[in-house]
UniProtKB/TrEMBL annotation:
Transmembrane helix keyword on record: yes
SUPFAM superfamilies: 3-carboxy-cis,cis-mucoante lactonizing enzyme (SSF75011)
Protein name: WD40 repeat domain-containing protein
InterPro entries xref list: DUF5711
TM spans (from-to): 47-68
Keywords: Membrane, Transmembrane, Transmembrane helix
């Protein structure tokens, strides 16, 4: 029995051994595969972190955008204040990121903290200023002198034989001036050192072009847009003409590469302006026209906005064109329309405010009078309305999004909106 039991036990042991399936020996991973997977995990972790930071930044950006777009400031405090020498003060103009102050006895360049960078003395009876890029000019209307400046100071003085009627300057310092004698008008051109260029346009009221009412040089100085008045069937009509002073314009009389009469039948064009080297605009008594000289030999009228109401003011920058007209609908007596350079409407807003000046600075429209101002953004929303305790001559954006530079004949202040 014992032998039989031993045999049975041995058989059972063998059966158990057959039922046991040995586990395969663990295989070692290749070291390069381990490194690759580790790097992949690190990259995924970094990607998640970047995505989280990106979402946070986008949320903050949207929040700031909404804040600056919709928030209306109700007060201000003065960041700094500086007294200005009044003299025979005439006006201020934005120039090279700062301010050009001009008067009958001189001009000065003032930075955005009220410091005079340079001063130029002269004597003029009726000074008028023009600016383009980093160049500016002050001309004596009905006089014979034009002072030309860049941001570092005077670059030259042009002296004319005939009285000056109008002047415009390019971003390279080339000056075009309308001069008048007893029988005709001329457009002369000057270098930034004041020397006369060998280019001249003669203009007569009953001539082919007409009498020059206003002119504007393109920033690069190669194009000029002119507003002209001419006689047709005994009536005075308006005309817009384009002159080209590059090589391609030499082949045409007076370098006129384009003229537009039909849009201004029975109306006069009072002002023209080059916004940049391609886009320009013309303001008539009943319309605003938008032009393109993308094809330099064939200027194009992109759009003419007919204005049935009385145009009270026009203003512009290198990016926007604005007009203020009498409002015939609703309680507010005025309406402000702002356009892109191609004539598309940016916004239209009715308002009630006794302004004397209207400017565009960056993304803001600034309306102001001698002791108050209103600031609108390019959505037409009122961002700030305030009054001041000193005379105001010019208001522009300050160094930061919530600051303004408020300048008068005797004071300059930077205010922080609250």
């Amino acid at each position: 029995m014992s032998d039989l039991d031993s045999m049975n036990r041995e058989i059972k042991k063998r059966q158990l051994r057959r039922q046991i399936v040995p586990s395969p020996a663990p295989q070692e991973e290749d070291s390069e595969e381990i490194v690759r997977k580790a790097r992949k995990r690190v990259k995924l972790k970094r990607l998640r972190i970047f995505l989280i930071i990106g979402v946070i930044l986008i949320a903050v950006g949207i929040g700031l955008f909404q804040y600056f777009r919709y928030y209306q400031y109700t007060g201000y405090d003065v960041v700094w204040e500086k007294e200005m020498k009044e003299g025979s003060f005439v006006g201020y103009m934005d120039f090279g990121g700062n301010v050009l102050k001009y008067s009958k006895d001189g001009a000065s360049y003032i930075d955005n903290q009220g410091k005079e960078i340079w001063v130029q003395s002269f004597e003029m009876k009726s000074p008028t200023a023009c600016v383009s890029g980093n160049y500016a000019a002050v001309a004596d209307q009905q006089g014979n002198s034009i002072y030309i400046f860049d941001k570092s100071g005077p670059t030259g003085t042009a002296t004319t034989l005939l009285p000056i009627i109008k002047a415009t300057i390019s971003a390279h310092g080339v000056v075009a001036a309308v001069l008048e004698d007893s029988t005709s008008n001329y457009i002369y051109f000057y270098k930034n050192d004041g020397n006369v260029l060998d280019v001249k346009i003669k203009a007569l009221l009953n001539g082919e072009t007409g009498y020059p009412v206003d002119i504007s040089l393109s920033p690069d100085g190669t194009q000029l847009i002119g507003a002209y008045a001419y006689l047709k069937n005994g009536a005075l009509n308006g005309r817009v003409a384009f002159h080209n002073f590059a090589e391609i314009g030499k082949s045409v009389p007076d370098r006129v590469v384009g003229g537009f009469d039909e849009p201004y039948e029975s109306s006069l064009v009072a002002r023209v302006h080059f916004l940049d080297d391609t886009y320009s605009c013309a303001f008539a008594d009943n319309s605003v026209s938008f032009y393109s000289t993308k094809n330099a030999l064939s200027p194009e009228l992109l759009k003419q906005v007919v204005v049935e109401e009385e145009i009270r003011s026009v203003f512009y920058s290198d990016k926007y064109v604005g007009i203020i007209v009498n409002n015939t609908d609703g309680e507010n007596p005025d309406r402000m329309n702002v356009y892109n350079p191609d004539g598309t409407l940016v916004f239209s807003e009715a308002f009630h405010y006794q302004y004397t000046q209207a400017d565009i600075d960056g993304e803001h429209v600034i309306l102001y009078n001698e002791d108050s101002c209103r600031v609108y953004n390019m959505s037409g929303r009122l961002k700030f309305e305030g009054t001041f305790d000193f005379p105001v001559s010019k208001i522009r954006n300050g160094r930061f999004p919530n600051t303004l530079l408020v300048t008068g004949p005797q004071n300059m202040k930077e205010i922080r909106l609250q």
